[in-house]
Design a protein that fits this description.
about 375 residues, alpha+beta
Amino acid sequence: MFKRLFQLLFLIVILYAAKPLWEGPVSKYADLSFLDPLDARVESVLDEEMVESVLDYTKQTITTIVAFVSNKTAESRAPEEVAQPALATPAQGALSIHNIQIGMTEADVKAELGEPARKSVNEYGTEWLTFHENYQNFVMLSYDIQRRVNAIYTNDRLISSSIGIEYGVPKAEVREIAGEPITEIRKGTNIYKLQDDEGMDIFHSDGVYTYVFYDLHQDQTVTAVQLISDKLEQKKTALYAPQNDAMRKGFEIQLFDLTNAARVRHGRSILTYDELASATARKHSVDMAAHDYFSHENLQGESPFDRMKKDGVKFVSAGENLAYGQSSSIFAHEGLMNSKGHRENILIRDYQFLGIGVDFNDKEQPFYTENFFSK
């Protein structure tokens, strides 16, 4: 019985791994959107290490089969009809981040970036792998189950493009190059309308959603870019990710890294993570989420400074940033950077420490609290 189970698993993995070979031709004659839930199920149920080991074995089989079919086809053609083999290329050719593109293999990423500084769960149900050197050359990326890049983000000067979309380019120029941004994202039978937000544009082409963030305090120029593959975007069927402890921790540490990356980009010092201040921040996010309010002053009339002192945080100067409802730490951070008072807190030179706390209400909406201070 175990042998039959392994044979069935072997067949499933062969079909899954070979999907890029048959998906395109078949999709011309049939709607394959019904397979999207199956993709998600396969990726969530199968153990990744087991899949990778089976994939290593099945890739040889697939290669042999493809080579055999190709040779037989070539033998049946006239010599002038034999096509040259096509080179595998990433899905997104026009725009890259630190020479990394959607579809690139993990081996190629490691050759370019080395090992990640940390990993954390993201809103797409995968992991952000974060790369930087003291928050210089800051990049976050994600892999699919086949260990190919399916998402990239940077707020550093690492954006390169053959069409002219780069860090510091004005919004008007981006739209002149890329056209009008999309106004909705269709996922199966659902349509998500996008707000007309002057701080961000979303473009869709060549199998990639391109999120372009603008700095409203620097003449609406490009300050960050996020690339998401079609397949990963379609897997995220709801606006908000399911709340759990891993997601909370992921949002907290991502917001901490994003804040430090922004500070370094603007010539500021790196902040040290503070556990006490993080506990204070988290309790305030929990309180706001549970009691349905959004304010620096809690329902007992306590200010951020009162709460920090109460929890034993010693400081000579301090400040607090709040955000609510953004579906990721990236969106929360970019929104804070475009709000004058919040931006000033992020970039105050004298701050030395940062505590961050996140919690979710019963609608899965996140509440973000940042507590900055110096001693």
